[in-house]
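--- STAGE predict ---
source: upstream dedup step, 1 unique chain passed
mode: sequence only
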Amino acid sequence: MNKAPVQPWAVGITGFLLVAAAAGYLISPGQMLSVVGISASAESAFLVQTLAAAFIAMVPMAWSVRRRTPGPVAAAVLRGLAVYMFAGSAVDLYAYSNGLVGFPALPSIGARTALGLVLAWLALP
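--- STAGE serialize ---
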């Protein structure tokens, strides 16, 4: 399968998710946490706003690989984005299995895992 037409979509979706999550966590951390059943506190708001700053920093990295260009740097960026998707899903799955977050976390886990698989595939030569 040709990866060139898939990459702009996968990276675009990744970038959109990063921007949307960052905006939500910066503007309304309590409401974002409440989606998965977490009660907001000053500490949790601070933590998710710090996470939002990291998401903002990831956007230019993602944007830089929106076009299919061969090379070790592009592959490393795609692998890094895939690792983030897998790691975030694993953390959320752990939280769900221990009753820390509610059912709405499951679609997010599934979508990010699928997106991580696509990004990992795109990182392959």
